[in-house]
Amino acid sequence: MTTTPAPWGTGRMAPYAPTTTVPQYTPVIDPETQIAVIVDEHGRTVEMGAHGTSTNTSTPTNTGGGDGQNGGQNTPTDMDSMPANDQDQGTG
């Protein structure tokens, strides 16, 4: 009788690392400012750090035919884009 070997990944398995309890935070709307704030399980406001804004732009890049083609004009034969992501630092 032939036995099937265990899958290769099972030899790498181990128990999960011990965990800690994460406090429960709840987003609520401040009735005066109409802005979301985070409160802990005791109703205290929690500071979540600075949050900024970001913008995404995409700049096209071209590849051309090279020297001597198209009468000296470099007409693109392939086109793609390079994304950029600019982060602004928020103020608390």
UniProtKB/TrEMBL annotation:
InterPro entries in the record: Actino_peptide, GRASP_targ
Region (Disordered): 1-28, 41-92
A Pfam family hit: Actino_peptide
Compositionally biased region (Low complexity): 52-62
Identification of the protein by name: ATP-grasp-modified RiPP
Species per Swiss-Prot/TrEMBL record: Kitasatospora setae (strain ATCC 33774 / DSM 43861 / JCM 3304 / KCC A-0304 / NBRC 14216 / KM-6054) (Streptomyces setae)
Lineage of source species: Bacteria, Bacillati, Actinomycetota, Actinomycetes, Kitasatosporales
